[in-house]
Each structure stands twice: as C-alpha cells, then as structure tokens.
Design goal:
By secondary structure, the chain is mostly helical. It is 80% helix and 0% strand. It is built from 10 helices and no strands. The N and C termini lie far apart (41 Å). The relative contact order is 0.16.
Length: 191
Amino acid sequence: PFLVSGFFLIAPFLGIGFSQISRYLEKREPLNACNPVDALKSNHAHIAMITGGLFMILQLWIASNFVLFSLLYEGLSPPLDNFFNDVFMSEKGRLFMMASIVVGAFFAVCAFMISAITVPMLIDRKIDGFTAIRFSIKSVLENIPAMMIWAFLIVLIVGLGLLTFYIGLIVALPLIGHGSWHAYRALVPSN
C-alpha cells in the first residue's frame, strides 16, 4: 500500500517525457527530434528540487503511518499468528486505516497542489521551482472544482492501471502526462 500510494506522490516526475512530447506536438515540431532527457536538461536543477520535494512528502507520509501504527499497537507489531485479524479486522485496525486515509489525503492534496502544473511549467519556461510551485498552488486554488475533477481522474485512471497488474499504466501514464500538459497550457497561456 505504501508503494502504490507513493506512486501517486512521485508520478509527476514520471510524466516529464510525456509533457515533452506534448510540447513538441503543440509546436508542430517533429517527434523524431523529441528526447525526454532534453526536458530534464532544460531546467534540471529545479526539476530535481521538485522531485526531491515530492520524495520528501512521500517519506513524511510513510513516517506518519509508522507513527500512527506505533500509537495504536504495542510492541513492534502484532503477533504474526493473528496479524491479519489484529490489523485489519479489529477496532484498532479500523482506526488505523481511517487515520492513515486522512493523513494520506492531506499529503496527497499537498503534493497535487505543488505539482499540478509545476513540471510542465519547468519544462516550458526558464523559471525557478518556487515560482512554478506558486503558480501551481494559485492555479489549483483559483480552479478548485475543475482541479478536484482532474485529481479524481488521475486517481481513477492510474488506479485502473494499477488494478490491471500495472499493465494498464502503459495507457494511463501517457494519458495523464499529456493531460497534465494541456491542463498547464489551459491555466498558463503560452508566451
């Protein structure tokens, strides 16, 4: 569960190549000249900063789950002979799952707000990461209904990709990557 949920937090980094392809398509440039590595090189320090920030959010979320688990259970973990019942079927287990969902939702909202349009913006423009984050947060707050739908669609599409034993990600990742570019372009017009 940590790795699957963590995937959603670091996924904007994985969409860099698809944003680069969308950028080339928008400019009507030939795709044979499109290299996703060039997108990383264009603003590598700030893309690395954003990616590092998303990894930090992932680590904070994992650490918070360990803290929640340790607050609810005595010792290192429940005994293995009754682990499933103690963790998933008990009152403590339900409380842990609810608390974990609330904490996870908080971190997911933070990650979405700082990264909704940040990566495409860093590929498209020579700006710093903090400016891109400010634009992203402002765009989310000014377009809450549309951005909530976009966040829901991301979770739904990637979730379906994960449910198909990761095979569906072959379709989901390009779809989300290209969609993120178009969301960015709709929120931040070209120069």
